[in-house]
What does this fold into?
Amino acid sequence: MRVRRLVGLIVANLATQRLRAALTILGIVVGTALLVFFIGLGQGLRERVLNRIFPVNQLELEPRAVQVFGIEQIASDVPLDDARIAQVARLPGVVRAFGKQKSGFPARLWGGKELIGYNLFTEAFFDGMPAVVLRSELDTIEDVAAKRREAAARTAARCDVDLDCLAGQGCRDGTCELVVWASRFRDDLAIVLPCAASADCAQGVGCHGGRCGSGHSALPAEAAARCLLPESAGNGRGLEFDREVGVLARPCDAQGDFCPIAGSACPAGTYCAGDDPDTVLGWCEPPLPAVLNPLLIEVFNSDMARSLGAAPLASLHALYGIRFHVAFGDSYFAKDAARDRQQVKQAVVVGFSRKAPELGVALPLSLVRALNARFRSQAAAQVYDAVLIETLSNERVPEVVAGAEKLGFQLSRKSRAARTVGTVVFVTALALILLAFVVLLVAAAQIAQTFALLVHERRREIAVLRALGATRGAVAFLVLGEAAVLGVSGGTLGVALARAAAAGVDLAARAALAGVPLLPDGFFAFPVWAAPLGVAVGIVFCVAGALGPARRAAQMDPAEVLAQG
Amino acid sequence: MTPLPALPAAVERPGPATRVVAALSARGLKRRYQIDGRPVDALAGVDIEVQPGESVAIVGKSGAGKSTLLNLIGALDRGYEGELRVFGRELRTLSDAELARFRNQQIGFVFQAFHLLPQLSVGRNVMLPAAFGGGLTDGEVETRARALLAELGLSDRFDQNPAQMSGGERQRVAIARALLLEPPLLVCDEPTGSLDAETGRQILAVLADVRARRGTTLLLVTHDPAVARSADRTITLAGGRSAAGEAA
Ligand SMILES: Nc1ncnc2c1ncn2[C@@H]1O[C@H](COP(=O)(O)OP(=O)(O)OP(=O)(O)O)[C@@H](O)[C@H]1O
Ligand SMILES: [Mg+2]
It folds into this structure.
């Protein structure tokens, strides 16, 4: 109860000198603001920027390379197959490990006409990855959650064709449904490739009627075989087309995506795929789901767009659903495959991932495998080029890396860069936080000075309080309490200032970086403890500054002060 | 000058038969200060005895040691030699905390310069001693403060700012503050020193009234012979020594 009365006295003291109190805590406000700001920035850069670009607990390992005459060569000649992937997966600290297979055959692609007015042509490189590796990133960048929320809030519209539906929706079974592009990137997709024998096809896939059919497991084997065979296409007339899985159903006319046998157009979402562009007869097939690296778009926006006279792309979302052509076995640089082994396919952009190759396309592993089997060799389809791993936590990363090194792996260049950037961000944030503490120390010194003056000015008042029965402890409490209240206000203002500054920076960044795709919502992430820490630091430094003056106030001789008149 | 009213019968005066503890008893009381490294005796052997309920004026030239003596009696200063008992307690033997408690509950201070806290209202100034002890509830403290202000002719001034008051009013507030925890001894260092003659007389009347109602022992340091005459008796300090004056 007495403490409450003393607190009342503290508040009264502060209330009479508001301007002075405000000036006194200026340093503390700035110090705590810097502290909280840099904590938020460091955490934000790590969580919201870095972790999106290179998730800290997701690493890419590759077989250790050695320099031979200045050229990097893989040191070990043990193939990186499923057994070795399993070995990595068993390392302590590793949650999952997946193989990544690159395409090792000539290919080129062209497309972009609907976007920039004419087609771009380029050599094509593919990375095959399991869908699970990309899934969360694809969902995040596409913002699938928001799409689902939006769709749930709307009643589905009736439709006959896709064009009847709003953008981002497709017509299915007479109602408009939202298109979730990310879900098209899946492991169980089929690809139809010309073949002479089963040896040309991926393991477990037979050659039927001159075409490899990696039948979808959900389809009855008999039905799958039937629908993969052009001869039996007529019989497959009644077979439902699975748009998600995308198994081809009917032969078609490549000239008009028309199925002459079935007498109807290819189902929405599919096109008539022939063995080569000149072939008129082909099969209704869904385009290959392609995942691009967002960097590609940044490169396009920063340099290419201007030199090509095209408008920069405002958002990645404009690219979803864009189709392009891929010619497998055909190259601008390397020797082409035999003409009868070449194959033109369509691909569709279904998402973006930083794990996709910077200058290439990520495809489902199963497809790259099938392509490698066809255009390289069965053996090539069985080995991987890198291992994608997920560690239990960030803290386990060094341990996992050490374990992987013993197995003959090294961090991929990308992962090494990620770890370096992570360290730089961490060290920089730490340095800035230290700077904040220097400011706080200066502020505390200033508090000490102000309070020394304050105690001197109030010495008579303090002596009177002693005469009225205040103990030395009560006097010290009054001084320190005043400092603590200033600390609370300084800390709170500092936290508020930091949050406001962060919001301002985010706002400015959004304005300045408008058009850069894949920007995070903000560059700051304030941990829940940041605000309490800011206030606590404000209190600690204020009270620390006031300790000396409080001691002097407590030790003052009231009789002597009162004798001074 | 009206003589002080007689003490009410309820207040027990020390009689020869009862052994009443003296309110104040000093024997060979010395206080030595170091001034420029040389010892100066502000008090060089003071002998006083004051009985409970007495009012005693302490007079003497400037520098005679009056304030020094009052600070010792008021338990603000412990650096003395000799013997000093206030209500039977040798103050030198008390700890810092005990001295604070003693000041809080046994002593009421009234200063020449009032020493009210300008940042507090009149009422909160009066209630100040309760922040350091007394064991009263908030309600009791406020009731008492209001009653005291009313008693001293300051009803309805509870929320006023003391800066807006006259010197006499401020001194009344200071007296109310000194009386909040009902101390048995009031030490007043030139309570009328900052006031004109008429206001000074009013303050003396207030003090006399307080003493009459409560039986409070009064020690008054003064330069004013009229004030000294208002007390039961006078003690004169000269050269750091006491000389008993005649009873009023
Ligand atoms: N804290 C102190 N340190 C040193 N000397 C002191 C101190 N307090 C008082 N003195 C000295 O002790 C002597 C007595 O001082 P004191 O204040 O008690 O006089 P006083 O009788 O109250 O005088 P006045 O009538 O002017 O108030 C003076 O010489 C004074 O200088
Ligand atoms: Mg004096």
In short: Residues 1-17 of chain B have pLDDT under 50 and may be disordered. The first strand of chain B starts at residue 24 and ends at 35. Chain B has one domain: 24-247.
